[in-house]
Amino acid sequence: MPETTVRMCTVCGVQDYERSIFGKPIELISSREVDELGTYKKWKQEHGGPHQPHDWKEVEVAPKDLLKD
Q: Measured over all CA atoms, what is the biggest interatomic distance in the chain, rounded to whole angstroms?
């Protein structure tokens, strides 16, 4: 059974879902920056472009209050 690790960038809100089997990440079933059309798109519009690197924090469910102002 695959395990899923959910991370969220505390700066822009983009989410990252990494799925692994026996502790090894499986890129084929993982999703990177799945929020490209939602929170991250809005953040880029408000701040004039993307940022790097993301400040990842592992979360159970990605809460809105995790974002830094």
A: 41
